[in-house]
Specification:
The protein has 1 helix and 18 strands. It is mainly beta and 256 residues long. Strands 3, 4, 6, 7, 9, 10, 12, 15, 16, 17 and 18 form an 11-stranded mixed β-sheet that branches. Strands 2-1-5-8-11-13-14 form a 7-stranded mixed β-sheet, with no helix packed on it. Belongs to the UreD family. UreD, UreF and UreG form a complex that acts as a GTP-hydrolysis-dependent molecular chaperone, activating the urease apoprotein by helping to assemble the nickel containing metallocenter of UreC. The UreE protein probably delivers the nickel.
């Protein structure tokens, strides 16, 4: 990987979500704090036992080069939360040439459930972005975590994007991986990398019913393929996929 570019002056923002189980079986949101470009909105849900839904709405263009954004999400014991976004997040170059940083920390306590399903992250041409996601999953908790990365907008070269995902289950390390994509990372577009594909992603499932066994399959378009593997003795599965565009990628991940 290339030398890390220091984060320069830019927007600093820190948003927080806490979901808790209410007495009537519903999930309440005692903490829903937006900050800067990270605007969080509760999406209405109905029916007893229905979890809360939170949607991230971009309040301004971000992340730009030099920005440092942070998002903390905690789902307390017995609560259920679905997290989504209103549109894709687009990483753009800043004026200084510095990298942007986006740090996400997720805690899913024992017996809680989180569906993390935001729209794709797009690395626009000239952008530099580091994404770090740390997840703590308690015993008996359920997690569906989807990450989709798109290399450049239509008709442009991609920016440089590094994404690291670290997951612990009941205090033990379950997954720790880092992906470097774009011009700043040697060999990223070769046969050992994305091999010409412009969209890559993964779907991690922890707890609940698991699709049995590992498998590999192909999707529509040249080079589109996906693979699913079991983690932690069947407690989790990880589906990794790459495709020519975001739509084909989403289909591959759903099949997984």
């Amino acid at each position: 990987m290339s030398t890390v570019v220091p984060v320069g002056a830019g927007v600093r923002a820190h948003a927080r979500v806490v979901a808790s189980a209410g007495f009537d079986g519903r999930t309440v949101l005692p903490v829903l704090e937006s900050d800067g470009p990270l605007a969080l909105r509760r999406v209405r849900s109905s029916g007893a036992g229905v979890g809360a839904q939170v949607c991230l709405v971009g309040a301004m263009s971000a992340p730009l080069g030099g920005d440092r954004l942070a998002l903390d999400v905690t789902v307390r014991a017995g609560a259920r939360l679905r997290f989504s976004s209103a549109a894709a997040t687009i990483a753009l170059p800043g004026h200084t040439g510095a990298a942007a940083a986006y740090d996400v920390r997720i805690v899913v306590e024992e017996g809680a459930e989180l569906r993390w399903e935001p729209e794709p992250l797009i690395a626009a041409g000239g952008s530099l972005l580091r994404v770090g996601t740390r997840i703590e999953v308690g015993a008996g908790a359920r997690l569906v975590f989807r990450e989709e990365l798109v290399l450049g907008r239509a008709g442009e070269e991609p920016g440089s994007l590094a994404s690291r995902l670290t997951v612990r289950r009941d205090g033990r390390l379950l997954l720790d991986q880092e992906t470097g994509l774009g011009p700043g990372y040697g060999g990223w577009d070769g046969p050992a990398g994305v091999d010409g594909c412009r969209a890559v992603g993964q779907l991690l499932r922890v707890g609940g019913e698991m699709a049995g066994g590992s498998r590999v399959w192909e999707g529509p378009g040249e080079g589109a393929q996906a693979a699913r593997m079991e983690l932690a003795g069947g407690f989790a599965t990880l589906t990794s996929a790459m495709a020519s565009d975001a739509l084909a990628l989403r289909g591959l991940l759903r099949e997984g």
